[in-house]
Amino acid sequence: MSDGKEPSPGLANAPVVERLVRVDAVEGESAWVLADRMGGCGGCSEKGGCGHAALMGEAPPMRLKIANRLNAVPGEWVVLGVTSGSLLGSLMLAYGLPLGGFLGGALLGASIAPVAAMLGGAVGLGLMLLVCRRIFRARGAAGDVTAEPRMLRFAPPPVRDGCTKT
Fold first, then answer.
1. What is the value of pTM for the model shown?
2. Inside any domain, residue 14
3. Domain assignment of residue 2, yes or no
4. Are residues 133 and 104 part of one domain?
5. Which residue range is the domain that position 110 belongs to?
């Protein structure tokens, strides 16, 4: 394991959303990492917490394939990061565009007839989902990796508080 001081290029001055993950396997220049599923609040151990972990039950961890920039080996813990701006842009594209298509189609349909509002909403949603799919595929084909998580540094294993299992 390294001392954890190797920064990842491209994220130096941008605000970054980070997540601790464990390396599960290595394939060439890529690594498969496991990320525990968790609630957004992080208050599982606090009195009066929302109980999200209890509702999730024993959900398996997410398994992601990412570039192994730190040459991590299976069993090591690393911090992944993605710039908050690119994350927000991707979220707006993935959720905002279809929602806008749905609302636009519904409003356009409603101007014709009440029943057409439902059909217009469904058509608008479907079209915008196809547009999103094309945009994300074009980004991938062009090699745009701005919204992909990157390994930032090595980290010690997490201290468990009973909220999730190792």
1. 0.62
2. no
3. yes
4. yes
5. 87-141
Task: Mark whether 23 and 71 lie in a shared domain.
Answer: yes
Number of domains within the chain: 2
71 domain-assigned: yes
* 3-class SS string, the chain: CCCCCCCCCCCCCCCEEEEEEEEEEEECCEEEEEECCCCCCCCCCCCCCCCHHHHHCCCCCEEEEEECCCCCCCCCEEEEEEEHHHHHHHHHHHHHHHHHHHHHHHHHHHCCCHHHHHHHHHHHHHHHHHHHHHHHHHHHHCCCCCCCCEEEEEECCCCCCCCCCC
From first to last of its 166 residues, the chain has per-residue pLDDT tens of: 444 444 444 555 667 888 899 999 999 999 999 988 765 565 555 556 666 655 656 668 889 899 999 999 999 999 998 888 888 888 899 999 999 999 999 999 999 998 999 999 999 999 999 999 999 888 877 777 677 888 999 999 887 665 544 4
